[in-house]
Amino acid sequence: MSRSARVARHPLADSMTMTGRSFRHALRSVDSLLLSVLLPLMLLVLMTVAFGGAMNTGDESYIDYVTPSIILLCAGYGATMTATSVTKDMTEGIVDRFRTMRVVSSAVLTGHVVVSVLRNLLSTVIVIAAAFALGFRAQASPAEWLGAFGLLTLFILALTWLAAAIGLFARSVDTASALGFFILFLPYVSSAFAPVETMPRWVQGFAEHQPITPVVNTVRGLLLDTPVDDYWWTAVAWCLAILTVSAVGSAVLWRQSRAR
Prior knowledge:
about 260 residues, mainly alpha, 10 helices, disordered N terminus
């Protein structure tokens, strides 16, 4: 193999190596894996069994209304785990060792992101299966399922890169966890758990113009075979904007971290 061919393969090989490393770390952290699955399941049961009877969402049953929201909240929790994992790497000195080994800089973050996305997608499948067991009844066609899954994957990818940027910005694991809290907070001030029109007027403006509302409305519309109106392109635009800004921001923060 020529030297140019070896160089061309180097970034991919490094990314695969770092992905394997992150995957092994995830398997060793059994408590984190269980929490990433059990927490959304507990919230799904709580919102549908304990509070579902008190919620009025029109013609839809509350479990149909809230299931897409739990999926998005699951992605937010998984993102906070990514932020703390990145910060842990940055503060424990392992990254400095990787730099002496001439590992491609993007590979470390790519490993964290790939494993986080796969973990979140697995949690999504488990939550949907549990929702069906509790009475969720999707009306989606195969094309609508594919569209909903594609948007969820894009949303999870964008949120995970945002978490990676937060992990690079934070100077401690506690700070990364605290900053990640804001990701978990957004679904509660959106159409995720209650229709926006039932909120106070001063809250409605924020709820309508933040990323969670168009994403959850689009996923809900696709799964329940109801009109998504203009929400779909707003949702895609938000996801692409977050992904672009987060990826670029991560690259900048990574270069700056050399000077720490």
